[in-house]
Design brief:
The chain has eight helices and eight strands, in the order βαβαβαββαβαβααβα. Helix 1 crosses helix 4.
Length: 229
Amino acid sequence: MTAVAVVVPVHDEEELLAGCLESLAVAVAAAEGVGARVEVALVLDACTDRSSAIAAEFEVTTVAVTAARVGAARRAGVAEALRLLDPVDLADVWIANTDADSAVPVNWLTHQLALMRAGSDIVLGTVRPDFADLAPAHVAYWRATHHRGRPAGNTHGANLGVRGSVYRAAGGFTDVPEHEDVRLVETARALGAIVTASDAAEVTTSGRVEGRTPGGYAAFVRATAAQFA
């Protein structure tokens, strides 16, 4: 049986967390329907809002940390999910990562698992900002520059999957405030990991311009939005 560790770092996401967890519940059910064993680890990182109370309404395992660094939060989440799945061969474990301000599609896990079984060690999934957060000109620009079936192959923590054995060999997520996802993928590539880019299970993430890290996707949205101000 393939085991799946789903990891979600959370830092004061009371407005968007319920939507994230609702979408995850559907994706998890689809994966379990094809025989996967799934554990979801939600990492409450220095939260001061209602995120903990919202998480308690869902069937997820929560871990509380005070790092205020997404790299440390993801690392703690992976460790907890793997603990829950133990004993299991890490080569048969898939670690699926997303963010608390994001909503995954129903095929998010089943698609990644299909790629895993076909030999992929890492899946770089695409993300798109919630169009409700963007100006019409920004939406039009996004549509004109992103074409279905031609994923750019960028690394997004909101839509990233990695084989457990590769994650371990690469040293896992590093304890940094941002770009922990990029560092992991770069290290895994250097070790010879098979990397697949796909937009077949695109994740919708917040289109906000001020995020929970200094850079990250919000910085990209902010820089693009400035063109239409």
